[in-house]
Amino acid sequence: MQQKLLKDNLFKLIFKYGIPSILTMWIFSLYTIVDGVFIGKFLGAKSLAAVNIVMPYVNFSFAIGIMVAVGSSTMIAIQLGAKEDKKALKSYSTSIQLFIVFSLFLSLIGIIFPEKVVTFLGANDVILEEATTYLFYLSFFTLFYMLSYGFESFVRIEGSPNYSLLCILGGAIMNIVLDYFLIAILDMGIKGAAIATGTAQMTTALMLAYYLIFKAKKLKYSFIKFDLKIILTILYNGSSEFLTEMATGVVIMAFNINIMNIIGNEGISAFSVISYISTLVTMTMIGFSQGLQPIISFNYGAKSNKRVFDILKIGIFTVFGLGILFFFSVNLFSENLVSIFIKDNPKLFLLTKEAIIYYSFTYILMGINIIVSSYFTAIENAFISSILSILRGLVFINILLLLLPSILNTKGIWLSAPINELIMLVVSSLFFIKNIYKKNVE
User: What is the pLDDT along the chain (442 residues), one digit of tens a residue?
Assistant: First the structure.
């Protein structure tokens, strides 16, 4: 497997790793999108708003998980590429123990203090009860939510991206079946949506665990004492992805606050629908970049710098093309997409349709910014990757959300995201030209 990553045709490798990774992320997206469809159709706009209020907490949980997963998988891939197998096993075992510790802590917060958490996130009296219920039941499954993403990364390192795809698909099917059964048949409401999503994540995590325990050839878990140096390296390597996902939660909070002040609860519901649709786009870009990471890391560990640079070039052209495709698709089929989530509410339908047209400009440049940041992570330059993530997800977007609504009213809210991506394209290009391009050319 290592020799293939170092020698095989790049287009063949990128297809082998990138496509299954994108499909995996699409299936991951189904967890969120299917919930949105059932909640929108059977429970209504108020429930959509309640779930959207909880999303920053979910993003925070996922941010911890992706930090450990990306940080450790990058280390493991580089260590295996450098033939340091014992170090790779130690990194692998440490990461699993970190998943357990972090997830238990977050679960307890969501179970013991759900109402305080959703109040902090911006829930008003109208949606407080449903938001509290959703968070409470979802928190019982935090461990599996984290492990499903982490284990998927490890199975890919083992050279079995198709098996990981099968596991994620199994969880997604479980989510659809349970959503229908618990929401549509048993009428369990928002509680049913949370249990369906959590059980689906548990299904995926257990299927992946089976492979890692009984089938894996290189990665074998054994309990070890925590090594502070390894922990800090894992967290540092994954810090960019942590900040990116954390920023998503912060941005959702910022959007929610502005929308609540300018539009009200219906605006939150509209943004919820946009978030569900945008999840597929974002996960495509993240999935592709994650698929490239093992290839980049292995080649970087083997000091094949020109090959690493060629991978990045192919990746950038690919995500730009995907962004154009998503932009036109959303604009051509906006009515069809919005109608999936909204029924019997013409005002909300028109509001959402207009908003997503403005917001869809985000998709054109989003992938380039994600893949450049991911590239720096893959070569263990987490400092630059973290700077890009902070600027993109915390600094520029919040400044734009503060300024544009006062100038353009509601249009300013929806245009903040695409303008943010445009600014970040300039910034990412400057970092790339200064720190990477010249080095690889020379």
Answer: 555 655 566 777 777 777 877 877 787 677 778 888 888 888 888 888 888 888 888 888 888 888 898 888 888 877 877 777 788 888 888 888 999 999 999 999 999 999 999 988 877 788 889 999 999 999 999 889 888 878 888 887 777 777 887 888 888 889 889 999 999 899 998 999 999 989 998 999 999 999 888 887 777 777 888 888 888 888 888 877 787 777 777 777 788 878 877 887 788 888 888 988 888 898 888 888 878 877 777 777 766 777 777 888 888 888 999 999 999 999 999 888 898 888 778 888 899 999 999 999 999 999 999 888 888 877 767 778 778 878 887 889 889 988 998 898 889 999 999 999 999 999 988 888 776 555 544 5
How many domains does the chain divide into? 1
Side-chain-side CA neighbours of residue 125 (13 Å): 0
Instruction: Determine the structural domain holding residue 70 and report its residue range.
Output: 2-441
Cα–Cα distance between 149 and 65 in angstroms, integer?
A: 7
DSSP 80-124: HHTT-HHHHHHHHHHHHHHHHHHHHHHHHHHHHSHHHHHHHTT--
Instruction: Compute the distance between CA of residue 71 and CA of residue 138 in angstroms, rounded to an integer.
Output: 25
> Are the C-beta atoms of 69 and 153 separated by less than 8 Å?
yes
Asked if 218 and 80 touch (Cβ cutoff 8 Å), the reply is yes
CB-based burial label for 438 (10 Å; 0-12, 13-18, 19+): exposed
Spell out the alpha helix ranges (H) of 1-84: 2-7, 10-38, 45-81
Angstrom distance (rounded) from CA 415 to CA 91: 42
Which DSSP string corresponds to 287-303? HHHHHHHHHHHHHHHTT
Q: How far apart are CA 129 and CA 115, in angstroms?
A: 8
Write the single-letter amino acid at 242: F
Query: Rounded distance, CA 136 to CA 109, Å?
Result: 9
Q: How many other CB atoms sit within 10 Å of the CB of residue 371?
A: 22
Structure tokens at 36: 């949105």
Cα distances (Å, whole numbers) of residue 89 to 50, 79, 277: 42, 9, 38
Cα gap 190→128, rounded to integer Å: 12
**Residue with tokens 């990746």, as numbered in its chain:** 315
Q: What are phi and psi of 264, to 5 degrees?
A: 105, -165
Mutual orientation of helices 305-332 and 10-38 as an angle, nearest 10°?
40
CA pair distance 276, 256, nearest whole angstrom: 15
